[in-house]
Specification:
single chain
Length: 96
């Protein structure tokens, strides 16, 4: 492929790639700095180790599902609150 062809393909894809990069970078930063909510660990103290592992795995899946979406909707603030609570529960399990 000639250098002119390579340059033409690069120039054609550059705006789309730049837009995608900016969108992904701007979407991820507020979610990464979201502190976990304060959750009491007493509710987990009577659970067995196996039950705690299962609960932590469930919460990890829930947290992944609540994370940032590529196309944010109007309910983002509630999702952030829910994610902070789930992260707080994970921290509380770690304290048991």
């Amino acid at each position: 492929m000639a250098p002119a062809e390579v340059r033409a393909k690069f120039v054609r894809w550059l705006p789309a790639a730049s837009f995608l990069f900016v969108c992904l970078a701007s979407c991820s930063s507020p979610w990464q700095s979201l502190p976990p909510a304060t959750v009491a660990s007493e509710q987990y103290q009577d659970m067995t180790c196996d039950r705690l592992k299962t609960e932590k795995a469930r919460l990890g899946t829930e947290a992944a599902n609540l994370g940032p979406s590529l196309f944010p909707t109007g309910g983002e603030e509630q999702r952030k609150k829910d994610l902070a609570h789930v992260d707080g529960e994970i921290v509380a399990i770690g304290k048991v």
